[in-house]
């Protein structure tokens, strides 16, 4: 979870700005590909250099959308004519980051701009990226990075997450950012550009409050962002956040120019330049940002904020310095705030002497970890937000122990007997022995970054690596038994099966399915897939089944890898549409004596194993959580959880719906673990609940933390073990 916020005296940003002049050497952080910032400047541009830079965002180039290419050429030609000091691209450069799309984009860049454009990736560069960001870095350089231009220090920040849409800053990136900001000389204003917007009603990054707390301590003046395809200006927490319109929707660019106000003080004037088809330009002023003095909302930064649980309510209390806000409000951050915007009402605080206070109703909230936001509004309409973490007591499951790994635990946990294994994006694989309600670490090793779960079988842990590896570790010691290199990153879950009595390890490495000998890693056969595969293949001893980003589910001969049949989930000739709507992240399920079940973001299908013919289908996006088999009332059932919480129990032989319900929270990848006729469901915002598979009733809710959870939990040693994007691994007593 994010570092708990202090309820003590708040440290003023205005005080800290004077201490921001420490100069450090070359910057680097474990797991972060970064370039060192240029030499610190005095905050004044060099004589004779351009004072303006351009910005674009969300260009989404794709060969199947030629109008966007024409727009991009027009926009870049207009920018080149103004001779900018730099061009900042806020991400979603292409539709899916494929080499063909990248090459198309690069063909639109005029030679005179090529060495002046700086990039940050968007979710479309990483969501479906078979190269695990390698293609992005080859084409567009390091992320993050920083440099100086026009007398300001510019940071290209990258909170994107591989295989996911929302953002996550994480400890390593925030450490890099703080080291970078510390080296900026006093009186040098700072500009940050990134893809995901932060703060206010945006919930694209689960740890955005940690990011805002960090930048509040430095002279950050502007944060530029894209993603939302809409222009908006938010003056908050000492800075101005400006979200940009999408270039793909209309030909335009933004221009930021350093000028002086009527008193000779520096300012940054941001305009939007539209390029209508009729010719000419139309310029609109978007914002004027002072580059000296206190930033927007800074005068109403609270000196203290205290939030505590009081029964079924949160008591909120705040005090301020010399400036009295015109309004002070508070809200509980919404449980459904995930990868989008949620506008929830605020409760006004009342002033009593030197303090402001209120009580927020928490009676409808589950016990566990929650966050409360306090907003102080200044007379000019700007505001200062402060977020506090608070624990709400109550009956039901409780966290018994907690530990942290380096990086995010994005893939599911694995278990065998009393052993639990987790792998992290920081390249850490750790095993715990679960005994008497506690976890004792058995071993920990370093591998490549892990984005899907390791698999335990036959006293071996098989680890998929984004560094083009599959690694076999001894379950008792963590010692490496073997490791094989693959042509592409392994972003899928391995599957151990038996064919003719012999073990076979199935691994989807990018666009290739491999059948390996689990004892030594030697290859039995390989088969080409038409697209990215990040889910989990299945095998019945005769056929291997796997979904891919070519909008097809594939069946192969389990002995030879010969292609047997394909099933199309989306009829299209557009490779990008095929990827987005294909079963690329499908965890294929085999129903005993029944069909093979595959899913996409559109539907789930039961297919005849021998032919691939459709036996039944259920609409809805159940791919990410993944179907789960269970025995309910003595018969086999299939649990389908859709990404926004709609949940169904169906007959896996016919597809008939037995019941359906709404969980009330989103579920992505984290899915459910079945325990008899109960399914423990972990939501994207770390909500955990017990789902009665007979009735569809959800109870025993608890909120485990504040981070996004994409990792399916496991049951081991009488506990449920769950993990999140902050690298937190928790053992939960279910009660």
TrEMBL record:
Cited SMART domains: PQQ (SM00564)
Organism: Micromonospora vulcania
Classification via Pfam families: Metallophos, PQQ_2
Protein name: PQQ-binding-like beta-propeller repeat protein
Domain Calcineurin-like phosphoesterase: 53-230
Organism placement in taxonomy: Bacteria, Bacillati, Actinomycetota, Actinomycetes, Micromonosporales
Residue span, Pyrrolo-quinoline quinone repeat domain: 512-733
């Amino acid at each position: 979870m994010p570092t708990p916020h202090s309820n003590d005296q708040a440290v003023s940003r205005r005080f800290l700005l004077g201490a921001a002049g420490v100069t450090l050497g070359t910057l680097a952080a474990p797991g972060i590909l970064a370039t060192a910032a240029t030499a610190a400047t005095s905050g004044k541009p060099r004589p004779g250099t351009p004072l303006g830079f351009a910005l674009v965002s969300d260009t989404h180039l794709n060969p199947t959308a030629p109008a966007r290419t024409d727009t991009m050429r027009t926009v870049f030609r207009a920018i080149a004519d103004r001779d900018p000091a730099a061009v900042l691209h806020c991400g979603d450069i292409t539709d899916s980051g494929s080499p063909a799309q990248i090459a198309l984009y690069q063909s639109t860049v005029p030679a005179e701009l090529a060495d002046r454009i700086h990039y940050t990736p968007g979710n479309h560069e990483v969501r479906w990226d078979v190269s695990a960001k390698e293609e992005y870095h080859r084409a567009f350089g390091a992320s993050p990075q920083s440099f100086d231009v026009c007398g300001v220090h510019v940071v290209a920040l990258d909170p994107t997450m591989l295989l996911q849409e929302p953002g996550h800053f994480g400890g390593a990136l925030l450490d890099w950012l703080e080291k970078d900001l510390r080296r900026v000389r006093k009186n040098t204003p700072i500009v940050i550009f990134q893809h995901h917007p932060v703060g206010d009603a945006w919930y694209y990054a689960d740890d955005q409050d940690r990011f805002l707390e960090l930048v509040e301590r430095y002279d950050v003046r502007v944060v530029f962002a894209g993603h939302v395809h809409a222009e908006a200006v938010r003056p908050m927490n000492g800075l101005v956040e400006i979200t940009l319109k999408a270039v793909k929707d209309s030909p335009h660019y933004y221009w930021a120019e350093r000028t002086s106000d009527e008193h000779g003080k520096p300012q940054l004037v941001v305009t939007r330049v539209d390029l209508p088809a009729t010719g000419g330009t139309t310029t609109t002023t978007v914002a004027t940002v002072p580059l000296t003095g206190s930033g927007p909302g800074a005068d109403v930064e609270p000196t203290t904020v205290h939030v505590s649980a009081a029964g079924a309510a949160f008591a909120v209390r705040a005090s301020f310095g010399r400036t009295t806000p015109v309004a002070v409000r508070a809200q509980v951050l919404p449980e459904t705030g995930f990868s989008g915007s949620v506008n929830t009402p605020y409760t006004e605080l009342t002033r009593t002497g030197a303090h402001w206070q209120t009580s927020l109703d928490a009676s409808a909230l589950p016990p566990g970890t929650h966050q409360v936001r306090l907003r102080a509004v200044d007379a000019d309409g700007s505001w200062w937000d402060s977020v506090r973490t608070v624990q709400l007591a109550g009956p039901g499951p409780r966290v018994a122990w907690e530990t942290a790994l380096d990086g995010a635990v994005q893939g599911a946990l694995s278990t065998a007997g009393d052993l639990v294994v987790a792998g992290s994006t920081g390249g850490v694989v750790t095993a715990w022995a679960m005994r008497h309600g506690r976890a004792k670490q058995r071993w920990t090793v370093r591998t490549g970054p892990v984005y899907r779960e390791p698999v335990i079988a036959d006293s071996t842990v098989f680890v998929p690596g984004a560094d083009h590896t599959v690694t076999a570790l001894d379950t008792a010691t963590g010692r490496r038994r073997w490791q094989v290199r693959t042509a592409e990153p392994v972003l899928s879950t391995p599957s151990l099966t038996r064919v003719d009595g012999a073990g076979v390890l199935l691994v989807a490495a990018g666009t290739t399915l491999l059948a390996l000998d689990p004892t030594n890693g030697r290859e039995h056969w390989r088969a080409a897939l038409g697209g990215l595969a990040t889910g989990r293949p299945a095998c019945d001893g005769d056929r291997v089944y796997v979904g891919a980003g070519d909008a097809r589910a594939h069946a192969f001969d389990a002995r030879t890898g010969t292609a047997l049949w394909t099933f199309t989930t989306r009829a299209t000739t557009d490779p990008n549409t095929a990827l987005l709507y294909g079963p690329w992240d499908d965890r294929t399920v085999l129903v005993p004596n029944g069909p093979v079940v595959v899913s996409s973001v559109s539907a789930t299908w039961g297919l005849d194993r021998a032919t691939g013919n459709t036996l039944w289908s259920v609409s809805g996006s159940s791919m990410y959580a993944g179907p789960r088999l269970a025995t309910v009332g003595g018969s086999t059932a299939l649990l389908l959880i859709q990404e926004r919480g709609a949940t169904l129990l169906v007959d896996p032989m016919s597809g008939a719906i037995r019941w359906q319900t709404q969980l009330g929270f989103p579920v992505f990848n984290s899915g459910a673990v079945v325990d008899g006729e109960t399914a423990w469901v972990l939501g994207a915002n770390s909500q955990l609940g017990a789902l009665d598979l007979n009735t569809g009733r959800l109870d025993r809710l608890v909120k485990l933390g504040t981070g996004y959870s994409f990792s399916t939990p496991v049951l081991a040693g009488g506990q449920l073990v769950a993990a999140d994007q902050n690298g937190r691994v928790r053992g939960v007593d279910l009660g």
